[in-house]
Design brief:
mainly beta; Neuraminidase; Methylamine Dehydrogenase, Chain H; 3 domains; Centrosome-WD_assoc
Length: about 425
């Protein structure tokens, strides 16, 4: 699904054939599929309205108007039959049922990075709350929206919460001014508290491994600390130095070259195909000889949100690799072997890393840098793929299909779908 101003366009994922076209009341600012792909939600934040469309019954539609309370966020519940709307100033979360048309309210939600999270099986929801100048977490049962647990957290300013994939442990972390990661059980017991240091800026990002065995914590001190699920103690620290010295680490460096053109094929005026090849540059990977010095950017200390520390990290689906980005070295992706807890590969790009995401089915990483190329890494090696098409298509984000056979590449105003061929076994 994609939106163009007031219109919602639904296409077949394999053929891109147009299936449905819906028209909303105003410009669409957010869309989300229900878990069973039977409904799609369109949020019109400026109007405080959510419109819901049915794929099975195109004539059916639903409109939810929050009125004077306004709307700043909207999402589906895991069952795909309830919608959670967050009103302006985070006064409350309204839970709307599409089946019974009933309404429930959750008061005092906290405005933070990640304040509403569901367990992977969809049974429980955790909500970060702020009341009486204190942080709290409430855990709800999703089938009836009853409160299961409500407890306060030992945080100054709770920044986010995240469930482990197995749904047994909830991680909560404090503001960047206070290094603190708290781990709670489903019944609200504090299992462990982790603090790496005291005074400098603290936690910047966290990620659970798919097996729930490891919790990776990215910090402003340019390190990733990995905690284990037995004692919740640190088992290793992963540094991000500007110089790669280990001979066991493979460094792939992106290089550009101008294409060679056969002078006998030159003609005037040149054909469109020849003109595009004359002025385009090609890219490929070379393996650099260690030691390698990476481009290091010194952060500006007197500005808010400094470009420093590990801001992006993600585990591969098979739990074997961890990809990280240190914002001080914006052109590099670091790929760690989780089994050995060692640095395996560094991808050194020509431009700043905008986004990376693992294939949901196999250890294959897709990277984009704001250019018209997408970069793929797997244990077998690296490849650069030029997106065909006219004009300057700058990829700023990407998303894999759940099957791993295709991915959506997004620019500021356009998108395209990249299909990957599977090798015959």
């Amino acid at each position: 699904a994609s939106c163009v101003q007031h219109s919602l366009v639904v296409r077949d994922a394999s053929s891109l054939q147009l299936l449905q076209l819906y028209t909303c009341l105003d410009q669409i600012q957010y869309i989300e599929w229900s878990s069973d792909s039977l409904f799609i939600l369109c949020a019109l934040y400026k109007r405080g309205i959510v419109q819901v469309w049915s794929l099975e019954q195109p004539a059916w539609h639903c409109r939810i108007d929050e009125g004077s309370a306004g709307l700043v966020a909207s999402c589906w519940s895991p069952d795909g039959r309830h919608i959670l709307n967050t009103t302006e100033f985070h006064l409350r979360i309204t839970v709307w049922s599409l089946c019974t048309k009933s309404v429930s309210y959750i008061k005092y939600p906290k405005a933070c990075q990640q304040g509403v999270v569901f367990t992977k099986d969809g049974r429980y929801m955790a909500v970060a709350e702020r009341r009486d100048c204190k942080d709290f977490i409430s855990i709800f049962v999703c089938n009836n929206w009853q409160l299961l647990r409500h407890f306060d957290t030992e945080t100054q300013d709770l920044s986010g919460i995240e469930w482990a994939p197995n749904g047994c442990v909830l991680a909560a972390w404090d503001t960047c001014l206070e290094y603190k990661v708290l781990l709670y059980s489903l019944d609200g017991r504090l299992l462990s508290s982790f603090r790496a240091y005291e005074w400098p800026l603290g936690v910047k990002s966290i990620a659970w491994s798919p097996s729930s065995q490891f919790l990776a914590v990215g910090s402003f001190d340019e390190k990733v600390r990995i905690l284990n699920h037995v004692t919740w103690k640190k088992i290793t620290e992963l540094d991000h130095p500007a110089t790669i010295a280990s001979k066991k680490t493979i460094v792939y460096k992106e290089v550009e070259k101008s294409p060679t053109v056969d002078t006998e094929r030159l003609s005037f005026p040149p054909t469109r195909e020849l003109a595009s090849s004359l002025f385009s540059t090609q890219s490929k990977y070379d393996i650099s000889q260690v030691p390698v010095s990476l481009q290091y950017v010194k952060p500006v200390a007197d500005r808010a949100n400094p470009k420093v520390g590990v801001g992006m990290l993600a585990f591969s689906a098979d739990n074997c690799f961890l990809a990280t980005k240190n914002d001080n070295i914006p052109n590099a992706v670091w790929i760690w072997d989780v089994r050995k807890l060692k640095l395996s590969v560094v991808l050194e790009q020509l431009c700043t890393i905008q986004c990376f995401q693992w294939d949901p089915c196999q250890p294959r990483l897709a990277v984009c840098t704001g250019t018209s190329r997408v970069y793929l890494w797997s244990p077998a090696g690296c490849v650069v793929v030029q997106v065909p098409g006219e004009g300057d298509f700058q990829i700023v984000s990407l998303s894999w299909h759940c099957s791993g056979d295709s991915m959506v590449l997004l620019s500021k105003d356009n998108f395209c779908v990249c299909y990957l061929e599977r090798e015959e076994v």
